[in-house]
Specification:
Strand order of the largest sheet of chain A: 1-2-3-4-5-6-7-8
Shape of chain B: globular
Distance between the termini of chain A: 14 Å
Structural class of chain B: mainly alpha
Distance between the termini of chain B: 20 Å
Strand content of chain B: under 5%
Number of domains of chain A: 1
Largest sheet of chain B: none
CATH class of chain A: Alpha Beta
Helix content of chain A: 40-55%
Largest interface: A-B, 40 and 41 residues
Order of helices and strands of chain A: HEHEHEHEHEHEHHEHHHEH
Oligomer: heterodimer
Radius of gyration of chain A: 18 Å
Number of helices of chain B: 4
CATH topology of chain A: TIM Barrel
Number of domains of chain B: 1
Order of helices and strands of chain B: HHHH
Strand content of chain A: 15-25%
Structural class of chain A: alpha/beta
Shape of chain A: globular
Number of strands of chain B: 0
Chain lengths: 297, 151
């Protein structure tokens, strides 16, 4: 069953995430693919995340596709103008990659080459609309295509950044533009996430798109400190910080927290899946999937 | 035919550019000091609570990115407030929240640095919306109309 069929059938969805290497070594990806094959429904391939140059997400997706994994390519607006975006999307579709996550992209200042020119010709909502338009057989120009790419269009949502009301408006706009699945930023504060989900359910948005909650297992309390201080738009409940501080084995505690979180999130009305996003710790994904009992889902 | 969300229209003639330059002298006097206008030529000030969205480092036209800080700081320049944080606050204050639900067009870079007033007159871009009545009711209608359309 493909991701599209699972979304349409209302199945519970589990996604993983792979960050491509900072070199042209495709074997790294083939090696990582074993953690995901037959364990998750689809795997996100990041697109130069945090503005650091990595192997192209479309090329990585092709490698993983050949390994028998269903990829979701991330597409950011930071590095490409509208011409490059459309051409890359056509290229991806021609390679048999149809799952797409539309993002605005991290600002280039946060990367290893802050001198770069950021493009931002489109924003994520316009990118969703562009992909939806291509699905209807049209490019942004009036040019009609003989074959449609058939994208499964996804977008991101951050329930935790201010202004909270604007987050719902943006989600509404993304769904309206044609997004059929939404992956959230990692949940580290259940209260805010619950409130956000209540609002989503109230507006009926959970019926129009599949909401996949982000879960990020962390290796150490340092990672949490870093996120709380350096990463904007992230809210972390102090409970998790103190639990990790006290833990004898932070890695084990990190997994435990992630598993507990998944079990709580699954019970929230309107949540249709989980997106597990360990940063450079892909090997933990199968452990979490198994311990959280997601295999049988 | 899917919706069109790129601003197109007739190309700007050299004559028009001259008129545009004269008009900009006046437009800048009002829009630069008051709104921090960035001269995109495709003004959406009226649907963004009269705060210029183009001051955003990413020049987002459809809402804030995911990096707005807890106190509303911009993620790129933490000493600044996120413009979309301001837009939301101002729209709420003026009762113009319903306008934030609209999908704003992809920017037409041919219009960059031209007079938005002239572009409205030449019907390249839509005219500003001066008054919004019954904002809360309008938001409700937007959300419920959509629910009906789905059925």
């Amino acid at each position: 069953m493909t991701l599209k069929e699972k979304i349409e059938a209302g199945k519970f969805i589990v996604c993983g995430e792979i960050g491509p290497p900072k070199s042209c070594d495709g074997d790294v990806l083939r090696e990582k693919s074993k953690y995901f094959k037959g364990i998750v429904d689809a795997v996100n391939i990041t697109d130069n995340q945090t503005a650091v140059v990595r192997l192209s997400s479309i090329a990585s997706a092709k490698i993983l596709l050949d390994e028998g994994i269903e990829p979701i390519i991330q597409m950011t607006c930071r590095d490409r103008n509208r011409l490059a975006i459309q051409s890359d999307l056509l290229g991806a579709a021609a390679l048999g990659i149809h799952n797409l996550l539309c993002l605005t992209g991290d600002y280039q200042k946060f990367g290893d080459q802050p001198e770069a020119k950021g493009v931002f010709d489109l924003d994520s909502i316009q990118l969703v609309a562009t992909a939806a338009r291509m699905n209807c057989g049209f490019l942004l120009s009036e040019q009609e295509m003989k074959k449609t790419p058939g994208f499964v269009i996804g977008a991101a949502a951050n329930p935790f950044a201010e202004p909270l009301e604007m987050r719902i408006i943006r989600l509404y706009k993304k769904v309206q533009a044609g997004a059929c699945f939404i992956q959230t930023q990692p949940v580290f504060d259940m209260n805010i996430f619950n409130k956000w989900m209540e609002k989503v359910v109230e507006l009926g948005l959970h019926e129009k798109c599949a909401i996949l909650a982000g879960v990020m297992p962390v290796k150490s309390v340092k990672a949490l400190y870093h996120m709380k201080k350096e990463v904007p738009g992230v809210k972390i409940n102090d409970e998790y910080i103190s639990r990790l501080e006290k833990a004898l084995d932070p890695k084990e505690e990190g997994v435990k927290i992630a598993v507990e979180m998944i079990q709580t999130i699954r019970k929230i009305k309107g949540v249709r899946g989980i997106h597990i996003m360990p940063v450079m710790w892909e090997s933990i994904t199968p452990v979490i999937v198994k311990e959280a009992g997601l295999n049988s889902a | 035919m899917p919706i069109k969300f790129v601003t197109t229209g007739k190309p700007i003639t050299p004559g028009e550019r001259k008129v545009s330059r004269v008009l900009l002298l006046f437009e800048d006097i009002v829009k630069v000091p008051v709104f921090g206008c960035q001269r995109c030529g495709e003004c959406i000030l009226s649907s963004t609570g009269f705060v210029c969205s183009q001051r955003c480092p990413k020049r987002l036209r459809n809402g804030p990115c995911g990096g707005t800080g807890e106190g509303g700081q911009c993620e790129v320049y933490p000493e600044r407030k996120c413009v979309w944080y301001k837009i939301h606050k101002r729209s709420k204050l003026f009762g113009r929240l319903s306008l934030l639900y609209k999908l704003n067009n992809i920017h037409n870079w041919n219009l960059e640095g031209t007079s938005a007033w002239l572009n409205v007159f030449m019907k390249r871009i839509t005219a500003p919306i001066w008054f919004v009545r019954g904002d809360k009711q309008k938001v409700k209608e937007i959300l419920s109309n959509d629910a009906q359309r789905k059925d």
